[in-house]
């Protein structure tokens, strides 16, 4: 007879996500995972595979859960640019004020720590960034079609600029949010959207 799992794999994955997000991949040991998840090492391996597979599952979970309202926020009927501006301002504000800002963005952290030599992590990071870029491009395309952006503005180029800006804000917010850099960068981005 098959044994039933004595733990909730979904809760364990969320706990692993939090731990990897706090510490990163290299600084998190299997012993750390066993302690945080409250699950035996053998059960972690049986359910998730090795540490790397668990990390990728946690990173993918984060990608699925982050910015859940972004698509809805950017696809409301009516003028588009106010919503895009609100997103820019929100990213700047969160990078300065959010209590989790010192952890940064798990996708960005993974890009910095692993993506250059880990194709699995790079794939998930790229997928997450593509989702955001697609949402921004669609919104900015609508804005241009509605006359909110000049016809010579390239929605995809602007979306890519904003994506890179948002990732930079997350990194800068970890180091020196009080410096005024984030607010100034957000204002320059908003000026491009005028």
Key phrases:
mainly alpha; Arc Repressor Mutant, subunit A; 71% helix; 2 domains; Tetracycline Repressor, domain 2; single chain
Describe the structure in brief.
The chain has 194 residues and is mostly helical.
What does this 3D model show about the protein?
The chain has 10 helices and no strands. It has 194 residues and is mainly α. It folds into 2 domains: 9-63, Homeodomain-like (Arc Repressor Mutant, subunit A); 68-192, Tetracycline Repressor, domain 2 (Orthogonal Bundle), CATH 1.10.357. Helix 1 packs across helix 2 and helix 8 packs across helix 9 (155-175).
Low-confidence runs: none
Order of helices and strands: HHHHHHHHHH
Overall pLDDT metric: 91
CA-based gyration radius: 19 Å
What is the CATH class name of the largest domain? Answer: Mainly Alpha
The count of DSSP E runs of length 2 or more, i.e. the number of strands, is: 0
Give a topology summary:
Blueprint: H1 9-23, H2 30-37, H3 41-48, H4 51-65, H5 70-74, H6 81-97, H7 106-115, H8 119-145, H9 155-175, H10 181-192
